[in-house]
Structure formats: C-alpha cells, structure tokens
Design brief:
Helices cover 48% and strands 18% of the residues. With 153 residues, the protein is α/β, with parallel strands linked by helices. It has one domain: Rossmann fold (3-Layer(aba) Sandwich). A five-stranded parallel β-sheet has the order 2-1-3-4-5, sandwiched between helices.
Length: 153
C-alpha cells in the first residue's frame, strides 16, 4: 500500500531534493510513496481543511507523515503545525519539522506545539539523505508499520 507524505516546502530546490531522496532509491525501495507538495502554509491548511470535512477523500485521509518547513509564506509553519495537532483527523499523524534553523528556542517551540521530530537541514546532500532515511525508517516502518518491508526482511 502506498504511503502518502505531505511535504510543505516553499523552496523549490529543497522540495526537489527532499522528493528525490524520498522517492528515487535512497530509502526503502519496497515502500511505495507518494509526495503531496504544498508550497505555502495556507495551501497546506486549505488542503487539510478540505480533507477534514470530506471523509470520502481517500488521498488525504491516508496521509501518514507530514514533512513541514517552518519558514513559509502566507502562514508560518508553526501555525500549520498547531492546526495539524488540533485536528481530530490529523493530530496523530507524525509531523517532522525540516528547517534551516538550529535555534534552540525554535526547536523547543516546535516540540511544545506537537512536533514529533525536528531535523535541521544540513548543507551536505549526503548528510541530508542520511537524516531523511533515518526519519523514514522510524516514522514509516517502525512507527506506522509496513508489512511489505517486514515480509522482505
């Protein structure tokens, strides 16, 4: 079964790198994934609101992971995080913050608002790929579970 990942990222280069790492052979290839890209905070909230009121919407109801940048146009990522964690439908979905900020107050605030993980975007592509794959292993395999992966081991 395909894992749906909501990626909220305004930087097209970062979105491309994250998508490439997640989909193009860096992780567990036997996990089918779909990345749903939102380019600003308001677009993400609108998408989630629509999904929350439309219980027949299979795509959005199966979101199993949110990758969320904090520095977003229109609505900041911290507000998107708050929205998700107050949502009846989505509050149990793991939210991983991906940010260039390593400010301890920002990290603490993200956790206070319900973030499940916080990854500082590194400069090195290889380091970023390792961090994303470790995150994927934890949140999509160990936490959410993946019977396909477990059967192949």
């Amino acid at each position: 079964m395909e894992k749906k990942i909501l990626l909220v990222e305004d930087d097209p280069d970062h979105a491309e790198i994250i998508t490439e790492i997640m989909l193009d052979g860096h992780g567990y290839n036997n996990i089918e994934k779909e990345i749903i890209l939102m380019k600003d905070g308001q677009e993400a909230i609108d998408y989630l609101e629509k999904a929350e009121t439309n219980f027949d919407n299979e795509v959005s109801s199966q979101i199993e992971l949110v990758l969320l940048d904090l520095n977003l146009p229109k609505v900041e990522g911290m507000e998107v995080l708050k929205y998700i964690k107050k949502s009846i439908k989505f509050r149990s979905v793991p939210v991983v913050i991906l940010s260039t900020s390593s400010d301890k107050k920002t990290i603490a605030k993200a956790y206070d608002n319900g973030a499940d993980s916080f990854i500082v975007k590194p400069i090195s592509y290889d380091e970023f790929a390792r961090k994303l794959m470790a995150m994927e292993e934890y949140w999509l395999i160990k936490y959410v579970g993946c019977s396909k992966f477990a059967e192949s081991r």
